[in-house]
Amino acid sequence: MDNCLQERYDLSCERIREIVNEKTVQEPFRDFFSKTAAFLVKTMEVREHFDRNASMEALKAQNHALYEDVLPENYAASYGNPAYAAEKLGEFGQVFSFLYKELHGTIIYAFEKRDWDYVVALELFLEVYSAFCDMDLPEVKNVREILKYYVNDYCQDMIEYTVRGVIDPSLDFITEKIMTEDLNDLRYLYTFGEYVSENEIGVAEYFNTLSEEEVWDIARTYTEGYRIGFIMGRKDLSIKKTVNIRYHLGFERMVKAAILQFQEMGLKPTIYRYTTHAVNRSSHYRNGFSGAVANPQFDYDHRNDHALFFDSDFIQRKLRSTREAYEKYKDMAAVHGGPAVIETFGSKPFSPESTREALLLSENQQKQQAEMMNELGQITNRYIKGEERSFTIIAYPVPEIGENFKEIFAEIIKINNLDYVKYQKIQQNLIDALDMCEWVEVKGMGDNVTDLRIHLHTLTDPASQSNFENCVADVNIPVGEVFTSPVLAGTNGTLHVTKVFLNGLQFRDLKLVFEDGRVVDYRCANFPDEADNRRYIEDNILFHHEKLPIGEFAIGTNTTAYVATQKYDMADKMPILIAEKMGPHFAVGDTCYSWTEDTAVYNPDGKEIIARDNEVSLLRKEDPGKAYFGCHTDITIPYDELGSINLLHENGRKTAIIEKGRFVLSGTEALNEPFEN
């Protein structure tokens, strides 16, 4: 820390310690300032005196103390809860709850010694406190202005750090811990600053029961998927120097092995943490390294905090700052290979409550955000080129999935290592049949009212062309789907699932209605109020886009995974990565080939997949701003809700692929074996 920043730090800390017991500010605001100051003092103690060698019990107690205010059992009386803040502070509730959330990032800054971030957060608190020290209370608009100035003043620095996190391996706080900590001593879990639950402890304990060879093999499935993704995409991995590893706390032994394996490929890891500043947050979803979510409702309530300052000036500032950051680090961006993601599943599905007092984006802000995300995507793609990068994703369970956690983990390892050659042959039979028609009909059964007609592209040269990609275990692990980008015109009907888990959120009785491939109506049954249900879908599936198109139609073939979910009664906890392989699925948003539509893609049989575009993505040739949405959400109809998938031929004849949840097409019968066994 330089002398100037050290002086600012010392003065801020000294003043905040005084505020804990000061009575200068009148109630009810005094309670907020004294409690928040006490919280900040806890983070100061961590920054200055964290003891890695303390007992497990002491570290656990300290970890709990840092997050206890927002834990579910305490949230009703937390200023992090916008409803409570409004109840206690009236019209000031929203801005104070915003401030509380922003200050919560100091936990991370204290552990990482991110001194600049830490100091500006402390100074923000002191500036707001000073405004309440006078006899006359400030107006709400004055506090809003303080918060907006904070955002605008530091926007560029915060965005630059976020961009660097993806591409700069020298930001190695997490990497260094993985490579140097004694991972057999579970006290290491408390050194990252993340909330530690029984899930993180349980996963780390489980990995410590495995041999080095077993851990190496688990990691190899993941890293090989990344390598093979470049080969299958005919992209040159040798020109890449970095890979972005995204994972969940507890998987350090696997990640350590993966880092060593990536190094064999000439790749250094970048591991960034999920964003904590409101400048960079635009949803509840944590993208990047994370520990346990202390309270998903807390994150959900603050998903729209940027509504406080989100206007045209901020948008232009953010876009400019992002461009400047990428330009500054363009050499690093050019050699970045893309993400390698380890997802987790098994936690209790989260179905949020609707908090009326939380900040919400206006209709105009929603539209502006959609446009801004599109432009940010274009900026990123100019520096980390889509046609040169790849990715891989794999998923594993956490102990909360149930008492059979170890057996389930072992089952998922088997699923992630299924014989891709066997599936490749079976899926080729599916593709050969699908390529014989231009229309597919999908219907549900039982309570599922799905009734969809999907329009496929016309093959001008069937001998060398295909509509569907034969997806084996590379970028999307495990194996098990064939997918396409359908023609939007003529793609009509209703998609329905009785229960599904998307982006960390549970949806009940979800229905999307399509006309010419675009969403024109939608509903679910999560909330008593229909307006809340529609807003829930707008926020978390449509992402405030009007008439979002179908970007993908796929048929999942991984019946082994499906049977495992039924055996262990975990269907509602499966991640979309695996769930999408367990039935037909439809993605709303961008196509699977967004930003790389002009790069030729071939199946193992040598045929080119020509269905890389739809009528919306083709607009990129005129205006990229109209072609992309920055989202792609897969929604799967499980086999037990699937009545039929039929190919429709010109003469009115139908060819059945699936009937009553079972594969009936010749050459696919082996997919039914897991059901029988």
How is the largest sheet built, in terms of strand order?
12-11-10-6-5-17-18-19
Which whole number gives the mean pLDDT? Answer: 94
How many domain modules? Answer: 3
Low-confidence stretches: none
Compute the number of strand runs: 19
What is the C-alpha radius of gyration, as a whole number of Å?
Answer: 26 Å
Structural class: alpha+beta
- Proportion in β-strands: 15-25%
Largest sheet: 8 strands, antiparallel
**Which bin fits the share of residues in helices?**
40-55%
Note the gap between the termini: 63 Å
- Overall 3D shape: globular
Count of helical stretches: 22
Please provide a written account of the structure.
The N and C termini lie far apart (63 Å). The chain contains 22 helices and 19 strands. The strands form 4 sheets. The protein has an 8-stranded antiparallel β-sheet with strand order 12-11-10-6-5-17-18-19, with helices on one face. α2 (29-49) packs parallel to α6 (106-112) and α11 (212-232) crosses α12. The radius of gyration is 26 Å and the shape is globular. It folds into 3 domains: 3-138, no CATH class; 173-383, no CATH class; 418-521 and 548-676, no CATH class. α12 links the parallel β1 and β2. The protein has 677 residues and is α+β, with helices and mostly antiparallel strands. The model has no long low-confidence stretch (mean pLDDT 94).
